[in-house]
Design brief:
Number of domains: 1
Radius of gyration: 14 Å
CATH architecture: 3-Layer(aba) Sandwich
CATH superfamily: Response regulator
Largest sheet: 5 strands, parallel
Shape: globular
CATH class: Alpha Beta
Strand content: 15-25%
Structural class: alpha/beta
Helix content: 40-55%
């Protein structure tokens, strides 16, 4: 079976149980580098260090109520920004122009469902596409 091309994920979530469940689900799917940040400032450091292919962003973090600011930042930092998955219990509170920057997953959701969506939608390199890797 081909190695999955999704290898770098940043989970920005202040609910420790959900963050750990997502991390476990990504690891089970073969993702090697999964990082968790509970705050915006910690996430900013991780974004620059690993250049994630996918970012799971809790919209209402303890230190900010606009988790989408990190999505905007990633668009400025990278030529190929990561897939953004907004994680929220209140999808109606996300402005429409923000929703267009990614995919919205409404809490509660199964971590495996989020991981499956991430794998299916994550940007892939040209080499992985030519080799037929997911």
């Amino acid at each position: 079976m081909p190695k999955p091309s999704l290898q770098k994920v940043l989970i920005v979530e202040d609910d420790g149980l959900l963050a750990a469940s997502l991390e476990d689900a990504f690891h089970a799917a073969g993702v090697k580098d999964v990082r968790i940040s509970a705050t915006t400032s910690a996430a900013m450091a991780e974004i620059g260090e690993i250049a994630p292919q996918v970012m799971v962003l809790d919209v209402n973090l303890a230190d900010r109520s606009d988790g989408w600011g990190l999505a905007e930042l990633s668009r400025e930092l990278f030529d190929r920004p990561p897939l953004i998955i907004f994680s929220t219990g209140m999808p109606e509170a996300i402005p429409e122009e923000v929703k267009e920057m990614g995919v919205v997953m409404t809490k509660p959701y199964a971590p495996d469902d989020l991981v499956a969506k991430a794998i299916s939608l994550a940007p892939r390199s040209m080499l992985s596409r030519l080799l037929g890797q997911r």
